[in-house]
Amino acid sequence: MKHDKPGVLLVNLGTPDAPTPAAVKRYLKQFLSDKRVVDVPNLIWWPVLRGGILPLRSPRVAKLYASVWMEEGSPLLVYSKRQCDALAAMIDIPVALGMSYGNPSLQSGVEALLEQGVTRLIVLPLYPQFSSSTVSAVWDGLHSIFRKRRSLPGIHLIRDYATHPAYIAALKASVERAFAEHGKPDLLLLSFHGIPQRFADQGDDYPERCEATTACLREALGMSDSELIMTYQSRFGREPWLMPYTDETIKTLPGKGVRHIQVMSPGFSADCLETLEEINEQNREFFLHAGGEKFEYIPALNDDALHIQMMAELVNAQR
Fold this sequence. Notes:
The structure is a single chain. By secondary structure, the chain is an alpha/beta fold. The model has no long low-confidence stretch (mean pLDDT 97). The chain starts with 5 loop residues before the first strand and ends with a helix. It contains eleven helices and eight strands. A four-stranded parallel β-sheet has the order 2-1-3-4. Strands 6-5-7-8 form a four-stranded parallel β-sheet, sandwiched between helices. It is globular and about 65 Å long.
């Protein structure tokens, strides 16, 4: 009988190696060349990407990364490594980290597990809400790694955990800590990363998964529809994305009498540029400039103990 040895592959999106234009350019080229992210035909997209977006956007984005860079490195990578180490200390099977784009690569994570004799991969993409642009990209990456290999381990991909009780409990605890520290706000806003509306129209159930998380957390906190709302952030390009938009919504709130808000981004398992700079800096400024008085960003779950316990529960359910 073949020996069975499971191992865990934690996967996140990725990050540049350094907050420099060259490193950001390398990262964006890989990220924006993925058809799961941008599905424009190459004949049209590549000249735009290489001739316009990469040379113009990379220096600007590098400055934004520099504004949130930690002493140990990129926030996303720092927190992802902490998550990996904490999960490995909690369970008795190998755990490795891989990123869809950048380093450490998805392939390096897979190889690290195979070198330890792992015969069955439990793949946990750290995207609480499924989207074809994230989770399916992980699936594509795994296929690319194994398509030329003669041997294939067992693979179980955890599709998402948008309504998992342990995930909702971790979010609830995080919100309650913020309320205890800063007072209950007039409004709690959940900001999820957006996707093009067209993706949803074509069958991506991401908006339903975001709505499911919102409904579960609202119920857990005992809040009403008017006390807790959800929006979508980080749109890119000119086509319509999922609405309502976070930035446009935040700009209107003070005019409606909302003076104190707290914002969290439950779709991000680790703090990164989109939370630390886009939400906590850009959108904070939008709110205060529009007449708001108090704005607090509730950090991502990162390496919080309840978050790691949730990961362990997800993994153990597949063992």
